[in-house]
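Dear colleagues,

As part of the handover before I leave the project, I'm documenting each prediction I ran so the next person doesn't have to rerun anything. This entry is a single chain, and its sequence is reproduced below.
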Amino acid sequence: MSKSTLEITGMTCAGCQATVERALAAVPGVTAANVNLLQHQAVIEYDTALTSPTQLIQQVQSTGYGAALPQAGTAADAQEALEVRREREYQELKRQATITSAIALAAMTLGMATMHDPRWHWLWLAAAAYTMAGPGRRFYTRAWSALRHGATNMDVLIALGTGAAFAYSVVQTFLGGHDLYFEAAIMIIALVLVGRTLEAGATRQTSQALRQLANLQPPVATVVRMFAELQIPAAEVRLGEMVVVKPGERIPVDGVVLSGTSAIDESMLTGEPMPVTKNAGDSVSAGTINSLGALRLKATRVGNNTTLEHVLKLLREAQTSRAPLEKLADRVSAVFVPAVVLIALATFAFWFFQGESTGLALTRAIAVLIISCPCAMGLAVPAAVMVATGRGAKLGILIRGGDALERLARVNRIAFDKTGTLTYGRPEVRSQVTDEVLRWAAAVERYSEHPLAKGILEEARKRGIEFETAEQFAAIPGEGVSAAVNGHRVTVGSSERARVQVTVDGQVAGVIDFADPLRPEALAAVNALKGLGLQPSLLSGDRSSAVEEVAQAVGIADFAAGLLPAGKLARIREWQQAGAVVAMVGDGINDAPALAQADVGIAMGGGTDIAREAAHVTLLSGHLERVERAVRLGRAAVRVMKQNLFWAMVYNALAIPAAVLGLLSPVAASAAMALSSFSVVLNSLRLRRAG
C-alpha cells in the first residue's frame, strides 16, 4: 500500500470535487480517495501492485480536470508553491473581475437608455461576446470539458444560463427586436467573478497557520567545517554536523546542544509563550528562536525529517482530509446540477405555456440555473476544517483532519495514562539525602542511562556537587551498579521500585527515595474537562499505591493500576461498547494500541514516535490544558460546519422556488450566489479565535 498526493486543477464547486473523487475511487487498487476543493489536492491510498500515480493522473484527466504530482522538495517548499499559485490566481481573478465589472456597469447604466436604438444593440452584442470569450471563457471551457466526460458542475449552470441569454439576444438583434439580455449575461459573469475573487481572497486566510509555520524554516545555517564557520543553505546541513546558532537567529535543524546556554522561544511551534531554557544535552527543534546565548548543536534531524517538517506535512494532510459531514454535501451535489437543469427547463415550459413571452420565460429559467450553483455547499466543511486545524497548530495542537475534529466534538469520556502524561515521567529525588551520599551515588551513576540514575545526576547538578571519578564500573544483575571511587567500593542498587540504597565498602551509607512529579496543570486540566461534561479515568501499568496517589491528587475517581497495553485496550473497548465516545491521552509505546483504539487518541508531544503516529491529535507542547482546548476547538468547528451546511442548503431551498416564481432576476441571483460562498468562508474564519 502507498499514499500519493496529486495537485488538481479546474475544480470550482462541490460537483467538481465529487466527480474527481468518484473517478479516483473507481480505479482498481484504490482504497481511499480524498479530494479537497480549497487545497486543490487529492490524497489517494492505493495498492502499488494494481495502480500507479501515472494511472491516477490519467484517470483524473479523463474526467476533464488537470492533475500532476507535487514538485519535489520540503513541505515548506510545497506550501510556498501553493501560496504562489493562490496569489497568482487571486490577482488574475481580481483583474478579470475589475474589467467585467466596468463593462457591466456601463451596460446597466446605458442599457435602459439605448434599448430601443438598434445601433447600440450591436455594441452590447460585442461587449457581451468579449466578456464571454475573454474573462468568462473559463466557465465555458470547463463546462464543455465536464459535459464531454459525462460530468456536471457549477460551470455548466453558468454556461447554460449566460449562453441561453446571449443566444436569445443575438437572435433578437438580427431580427430587429428589443427584448435583449446582453447586460444580464455580462452582469452575471461579472458578479460570479467578483464572488470568486472575494472567495479566493478569504481562502488565502484559511491557510494562515500553514504559511506562518512554513516561514519558520530559516533559509541558511552556519556550520563548522574544517574548523571554520560557513553559511550554507539549511537544506544542505548534514546529519551529525555541528551547527552554530547566534542570539536572535532561528534554529535551522533539529539538534542536541553541545555547548552554550540559552532561552529558546518555541511559541510558534508549541503554543507556549514562555521561553524554555536549554543547556548542553537538551534537544532543540528547527524553526524555534534562540533568544539569548550562542549555541553549538549537533544536527540530529535535517531537511525533510525535522520536527517542523513533520508538523507541516501532517497539517497539510489534515487540511486535505474529508470530514464525515462533508459526505452529506457530496451526496446532495452528485444529483444537484442535473436536477437543477430539469427544474430550469420545467420553469421555462411553465411560464411559456402560461402565455408569457419567450424572453420572460427564459429569464426565469436562467435565474434558476444561476441561483442554484452549489458553491457554498462545497466550501461549507473544508473551509471550517482548514481554519480549525490551522488554529489548532497555532495553539500547539496538531489535529489530523476533519474526522478527528468531529470525533473530538462528540467525546464524553476521557482516559489518561499516568507516567509521562499526568506526571512528567522523570523520577526526581524527594528524600532529604545528604550531599555526601549523593556524591557517592552520582560518581557511580555518571555513565548510566537508567531513569533513576538521571534523577540522581540532576539532583547533584542542582546542588552544585562535583562528581568524583569512578573506576572499575560493573553492573551486578539484580543488585544494581558498582564502581571504585577514591579507593572505596560503592554500590548503588534498587531496594524497591522508587528507592535506591547506597553502600560504601559494604556499609549502608544512605537511601534515596524518588517520585515522579505531577504536572502542575494536571488538576486544573482534569477539572476543566469535567466542566465540559467528560468523565475522566486513569489507566496505568504502575503499582496501585502510585496510581491511587496521582488519581486522588487530580480528582479522578475511576482508576486502574497494573494494566498491560492489552488491558488498557480492553477497558476502552468496554466503554465504547457501552456507547461512550472515548478519548485516550498517553505518551508511550505501551499506550499506542489504546490511542489507536480510542475514538480520539491524544499523544503528548514529548512522547514516543509510535504514540504520535497512533494518535489522532498530538499536543506539541505536552501541556495538559491543551486537551480541553482541543475538545473546545472540535466542538466549535463542528458547530461552524453545521451552520455552513444549514445556511447553504436553506439558501438553495429558498432561492430556487423564488427564481421559479419569478421573484429573482438572473442578476440578483448571481449576486446572491456569490455572497453565499463568501459568507461561508467568512463564517469559517471565526474559528481563528476558537479554543
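The longest helix spans residues 75-114. The chain has a mean pLDDT of 84.

All the best with the project,
I.
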